[in-house]
Amino acid sequence: HVGFKVSHMSEQLIVVAGAAGKLGRLVVRSLLEHPSVRVRALVRSPDRPEVASMASDRVELVAFDAVSASDEDRRAAVRGAYAVVSTLQGGPDIIIDAQLALLRAAKSAGARRFIPSDYSYNIFT
Description:
This protein is of the alpha/beta class. The protein contains 4 helices and 5 strands; from the N terminus they run βαβαβαβαβ. The chain has helices at residues 22-31, 49-52, 71-78, 92-109; strands spanning 12-17, 37-43, 59-63, 83-86, 113-115. The longest helix has 18 residues, at 92-109. The radius of gyration is 13 Å and the shape is globular. The two termini are 27 Å apart.
């Protein structure tokens, strides 16, 4: 169980990058336990059946590739977010470069929190 403390605002938008992965799905599920939370799920392939099934009135699926996204794509992906949670996994191009670019977009968009995937494991050792 992944726990998040969610303050009692009328409604909060939480953006989850990598939402289609195993960890991302757990994060989304945990967030949806809070009725005041909406999730924007950033996924590479929103049309895949197992990903499309995540969509609901509180979960918006957005096609997003963290490595190839432009600065404008990143800004649009995080616009209006209270917080951005990254569950991205991969090499330095993802964990460092893409995540840093997403952090900058989140800061620029006024997100109050950015939770990076520094809790991921090293798949290269």
